[in-house]
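Lab notebook: predicted structure, single chain.

Context: the supervisor wants predicted structures on file for every construct in the current expression panel, including those that have not yet been purified. This is the next one on the list. No modifications to the sequence; it matches the entry in the shared construct table.
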Amino acid sequence: MQDWFSRESANHALQRTRHGVVVCNRCVPCAGSLSLGLGGFTPLKAIVPFLAVCLALCLTSCFTTPPGKGYKARAGYRDAAPVISALERFDQERGHYPAGLDELVPIYLKQLPNRTFFYLRDGEAFGLWFSYTGPGMNDCIYDSKTKAWDATGHY
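Prediction complete. Output recorded below exactly as produced.
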């Protein structure tokens, strides 16, 4: 024996089943929402915010500058150029790279740039890198073996 009750709403014919689930017998959108007993919740209402977030993420990734590109990276490359030249001159004159960047001052550089550089001597080669933010955290790394920059980043 089913315990049904019926009620006419503005545009809906609502019925409650014996399990307390409310269903509408007139329209398809109500069949999905009211049968769940969620009071007006529809799948469309759930997917719109999800799609909005997806769109925002897509637009953000499309219009952000990749690591190693943009004005902050270019400024770092510009600041690093005299340091790299000084390191190469040091190696040509002394046969090895310095233990630290401070050994370049005052003979090869008047002073170190204001930017923080990280330096690693590896026998016959060296690595020089700097970090910057926006967007995300980015590292630009110069390898003296390849004489090229590489960049990595993450959000």
